[in-house]
Amino acid sequence: MLQETWKRLGLIAVLALTLVIAACGTDEEDATEDPEGADGEETTEEETTDEDAVTHEGELELVYVEWDTEIASTHVIGHVLEDLGYDVDVTPLDNAVMWQSVANGEADGMVAAWLPATHGELFEEYQDDLVELGPNFEGAKIGAVVPEYMTVDSLDELDQYADELGESITGIEPGAGVVQAAEDATETYENLEGWSVDTSSSGAMATALGSAVENEEPIVVTGWSPHWKFAEYDLKYLEDPEGAFGDAETIETMVREGLEEDLPGAYQVLDNFFWEEEEFNSVMAEIQDGVDPAEAAANFVENNPELVEEWTDVQ
Q: Are 284 and 69 in contact (CB under 8 A)?
């Protein structure tokens, strides 16, 4: 009797062990066949690995011409890239040297290409050695600019101020597109025959403009927008019926060949970079008020997190 009891207990134990093993086998099969986790959401290898994640590291040099627009834009995007982890240098250069340095790979990129007119000749010369990333600002304009108190509205009326102005237009750096356009205007408009464009720098032009406005004296300068001077003074573009200054322009981003392969994250951020005039002007105005460009850029980045997030959304 006791022996039969032990036999029955042994059989029960064997059956129980068999059921346990079978249950474990089913769970393992389910885990192998069903890619869904305990919460019912699919987990994939792509979601659990960082192998394809973009890393933000490396050295980057951005170059720019020392115009107020380019000082602002270059420092802003440079700060954004620094925050991501890049070692960024921003270097001011002459117009032609800026284009050449990106085309020959000495610099990595610029956000300072005014097209189609202002930098048109430089673009024609170097376009085959550059990668175009498109506009970072649209609706830029160049032209002859005067204070509102002057009683002329068009270039074909400017000769009324020939004596007061000494038959001269106050320009910026020699070779700049807006200077060349102004020189073309003196040849296109018969009433401006014999006029000259006095070149200096964008800073010297702004100083001369400010002094003239303060004393309510006549002055005509080579101007462009966006620019802080339109917020600071009451100014107007002179009408250009002959089209010497061309149509509205874009400011575009250009990078060196190979940047996408070398620094794909930086390439994508530069490709995403785009802003509006109000945003642009806010940085220029702060710099004009005496704030260091790097500090003004940092302030803008801190105060515009949603826009910066759009620029830094890389895959």
A: yes
